Amino acid sequence: MTRYSSLPDAELVRACRAGDAEAWNELVERYSRYVYAIAVRGFRLSDDDAEDVFQDVFTRIYLRLDTLRDDSALRPWIAQLTRRRCLDALSSKGREAPADDEALIAEESADLADVEEAYAVREALSGLSENCQDILDRFFAQDQSYRTIAEELEIPSGTIASRIARCLGRLKQELEGRNEGAEGSRG
Amino acid sequence: MTRFSTEERLGVLLRLLRPAPVGWVRAAQELPAARRTFDEIVVRAEADLAFRAALLADLEQALTAEGYEPDRRVLDEIRVRLTDN
């Protein structure tokens, strides 16, 4: 956690524009999983292509941050940049959305929708305690075993499953709270 | 119920956003420094014909000799810039 971790996107963007290196580190940290997931899960790029897309997207973000009109719209802008670069990578490999590829395109589009949903879950995760964030991330996103988690966090391995279940329950409540809040503010 | 109705589904979604490889993240975080190096080399190459000739002859060796350690991406960009001008 840094002092920028809880900063809203708009303020983070302003700090990056001012040349704040720590803010840039946080921006990359905040969106690295998202860009990676769009490339690898959404468009199923190979590691080599995904790496090119990943670096190119962050280079474009860095060079074009001044052109972002609404600082709070950072995520959709990054999503758009990443999708475009993924499509470029695919078309340069000769995979240019042919008609007989419709099933694959539908699958990719479902995967992209899942990535968006996953991002919402990730945002909700930040509303939980650091312990819950840590254990859920280790187990689900980093594929760590109960044993590794127990060793690294110095907690009894017999309690890991119940901690994960409890934290998932809290995450679900957090998401439901956010959804109700969003629905309430809509009407 | 909401879209996030089951813990199982939450697990699936949490698995989707895996950490990007550490080296990729570090390289992206080092972009500002890499850009500064790129700009410095380009400005120097435009002002110093001997340096430019050395870069055109052997880019990596010329940069190493001058104490630069640019990554592959910066090298590629410099190559493009030198051949464009």
State the main characteristics.
heterodimer, A: 187 residues, mainly alpha, Rna Polymerase Sigma Factor, Chain: A, B: 85 residues
Average of the residue pLDDT scores of chain A: 89
Q: Helix-strand pattern of chain A, N to C?
A: HHHHHHHH
Terminal Cα span of chain A: 35 Å
Rg on CA atoms of chain A, Å: 19 Å
Strand content of chain A: under 5%
Q: How does the major sheet of chain B shape up?
A: none
Individual helix count of chain A:
8
Largest sheet of chain A: none
- Taken from the alpha-carbon principal axes, the silhouette of chain B is rod-shaped
Report low-confidence residues of chain B grouped into runs of 5 or more: none
Helix proportion of chain A: over 70%
Question: Could you tell me the number of beta strands of chain A?
Answer: 0
What radius of gyration of chain B results from the CA coordinates?
21 Å
Number of strands of chain B: 0
- Quickly give the CATH architecture of the domain at 1-98 in chain A: Orthogonal Bundle
Measured as a percent range, the helix fraction of chain B is: over 70%
What separation lies between the terminal Cα atoms of chain B?
A: 61 Å
Task: Give an account of the 3D structure.
The complex is a heterodimer of chains A (187) and B (85). Chain A is built from 8 helices and no strands. Chain A is mainly α and 187 residues long. Chain A has a domain at 1-98: RNA polymerase sigma factor, region 2, helix turn helix motif (Rna Polymerase Sigma Factor, Chain: A), CATH 1.10.1740.10. Chain B contains 6 helices and no strands. Chain B has a domain at 30-85. With 85 residues, chain B is mostly helical. Chains A and B meet through helix 2, helix 3, helix 5, helix 6 and helix 8 of A and helix 1, helix 2 and helix 3 of B.
Question: How would you sum up this structure in a few lines?
Answer:
Chain A is mostly helical and 187 residues long.
